[in-house]
Amino acid sequence: MTDSGAAFVTVRLQHARISAKWAESRTTACRKWQHPAMLDADVQQAMATVGRVSAVAAEHGTQEELGHEILSEVLKLIPFEAAELTTFNPLTGGVEEIAAVGYDDEVLEGLRSQRFLELMESLSLPDTGIPIRMKDLPGRLLDNWAVSELLLPAGYSEGMTMALRTPDGRFTGVLNLSTTSTEHPSDIARAAIAQLCSALGNLADPARSGRWLAMLLGAGSMAVGLDREGRPIPLPGMATHPLLGADTDLVQTAKSSAGKGGWNSFVWPDDEDWFRVRVVPCAGASHISTVVSLDNVDLGPLSRRELEVLTLAADGLSNSEIGDALVISSRTVGSHIEHVLEKLSVPNRAAAVALAIREGLMLGRVERHDLP
Known about the structure:
Layout: H1 3-34, H2 41-57, H3 63-77, E1 82-89, E2 94-101, H4 105-111, H5 114-122, H6 125-128, E3 132-133, H7 145-151, E4 158-165, E5 171-179, H8 187-194, H9 197-204, H10 210-217, E6 222-226, E7 232-234, H11 249-258, E8 264-270, E9 273-281, E10 290-296, H12 304-314, H13 319-326, H14 330-344, H15 349-359
Antiparallel strand pairs: 1-2, 1-5, 3-4, 4-5, 6-7, 6-10, 8-9, 9-10
């Protein structure tokens, strides 16, 4: 068996062991939940916590306010010493704080690191939403770096991590909590927290708020998401535009741009209007692989022909090559370059290209006559 095949089998076995442990503890807890005669104080408290947290998660308020209130409710069920609720940012591939209590900076840095996200992925947590405690981990506990290098040295003996998922299956954040007692979280508490995966997933969803996207993309922006096939996906709270429809030239250009990786920005004409387009590839497990935003832009004194010349110059073409592409003479290209330098108040061609790249003053597409 190849190394990659062995690694795949190992991950699947770990997932199976975690699922089996989860099923066993969940079955025990659910028997009590489903039979009134067995509703002891712990189960009643767990049911009450689920109800209260679900209600809080659905309230209006900032993520931070609701997050702190939720951690206060969870504390009534699980006597943790530290906890955090984070949101997964699909634009950066990292997590950002919603609310946190108890952890020092070193532990928080570790829990929010790419290494910890990779550990979660190796355990299939973003794919399942199953909460996992230290005692549920496969293999030797000390072989898990997060336990041996991060949590135990900080004084934590148990704890739980749950990847937050929306009802449509998107990974949107993480709930971490740590205790100094090996008795918590109990099986009943774990089953209760599992019931909250979708409610907390909705709360952590960065796309749930039009205000969040407006802050990210800029006031007045229109935007859509693109899936991995380049199909537009509406973004909650965001306006759209016919240019952002399926199979438009702009969307096809944005899809091609996203495939090159990294942020990209360019301008696009529509009748008498000009728009700035921003293409933002999204890392991580989100079903949205790219965000494409559109907002009006004032190009100032630059003409469309000058933008075409500047765009091709930024692509590294010489005056002669730009002339062939646009079917104009090299001398005319030179005149356009001089006008661009004057209008942008820059000393030379290289400075103009640098400014165009930095400010996104390039066309997303130039109709070239020198290509087949």
